[in-house]
Design goal:
Helices cover 40% and strands 17% of the residues. By secondary structure, the chain is of the alpha/beta class.
Length: 320
């Protein structure tokens, strides 16, 4: 469904409009230093900053992290740029001198991808789901050009497209660091190849695109029916702490329930507008969800979500 030409045109328009509103001043310190926080024993999160991709945040909006085992380190997501990836790796080195055995990329959003050059430069293999790799190859040259335009050539110096060293298609155990880690995959849910990473020792989940917290989830590449099923699977698992794709760490139940509630409310509101015959031009303004008004990106991602879902439902209605 995400290959729909109508949807691509709509998303491109919204991306361009969003980019023109980015801050123009150079305020590198506003992005804050990269700091690893231990959220569970041997499990570390390097939190992204809220806000838009602009020169204030440097696009460093997504969370990254790592798990320290007996024989090495598993890194999770790589940041927005080569420069960001270098900082993430330096923070891993500050915490431990154990070798980074592999980096897993959880999903295809620009703030999780383009630090990969820094990892590859150090001989660290990059792994991602095959469907994520295909999606990245199909569109992320454009993402990279947009980042260069918004953040500038200096900030994006050394950043390049890449192909993963390892592609996989199923969930399974990652026996790399002398510590039990599971890679979870629930088919096409929040995205076609979106994965999560579970540290079984502490029951800590790096949720990637499956879960955000205090930030509006992005439905751009989603299958909403399967996403709800994935959330139900997570609800049944032994998970204590969630490191979301964006936002602070939190208890599993509250994060899962909040994401499920948002998706349900979005679906119900958009369906109501469709039944009333609302034009697409009015959907973003009419799709208010007061419960989530204080979440990061409510005025941008939520409005886009409403428009994207409206177009999807309208097309489904046409072909029924």
């Amino acid at each position: 469904m995400f290959h729909s030409s109508v949807r691509r045109c709509l998303l491109l328009m919204l991306i361009v409009l969003g980019a023109t509103g980015c801050a123009k001043h150079d305020a590198r310190l506003d992005a804050g230093p990269v700091r690893a926080v231990e959220v569970a024993s041997g499990v570390f999160m390097m939190r992204g900053v809220p806000g838009e991709v602009d020169t204030t945040t440097l696009g460093r909006n997504g969370n990254a992290g790592f798990i320290v085992g007996a024989t090495g380190v598993l890194a999770i997501d790589t940041g927005t740029s080569y420069r960001h990836g270098v900082l993430l790796l330096a923070e891993i080195r500050r915490v431990t001198d154990k070798p980074v055995r592999q980096v897993l990329i959880t999903h295809v959003r620009q703030e999780f991808l383009f630090g990969a050059s820094a990892y590859r430069e150090r001989g660290i293999p990059i792994a991602m789901h095959r469907k994520s790799a295909q999606l990245m190859a199909s569109r992320c040259e454009t993402c990279l050009k947009t980042l260069r335009r918004v953040l500038g050539d200096e900030e994006m110096q050394g950043t390049a497209m890449f192909k993963p060293d390892l592609e996989f298609e199923t969930a399974g155990d990652a026996d790399l660091i002398g510590r039990p880690v599971r890679v979870l995959y629930f088919d096409h849910s929040s995205g076609p190849g979106d994965i999560a990473v579970l540290d079984e020792q502490t029951h800590t989940l790096f949720a990637g695109g499956l879960l955000d917290w205090k930030r509006i989830p992005d439905i751009q590449d989603s299958d909403l029916v399967q996403w709800h099923r994935a959330l139900e699977h997570l609800r049944q698992m032994s998970i204590e702490t969630v490191v979301p794709g964006n936002g602070p760490p939190a208890g599993a139940r509250v994060v899962i329930d909040a994401n499920d509630t948002y998706l349900n409310q979005l679906d119900a509101r958009v369906l109501e507008l469709l039944r009333k015959g609302a034009p697409l031009s009015e959907v973003a303004d009419a799709a208010a969800l007061p419960q989530f008004r204080d979440w990061d990106q409510y005025e941008t991602v939520h409005r886009r979500n409403a428009s994207v879902l409206f177009v999807r439902k309208e097309r489904q209605q046409m072909f029924e």
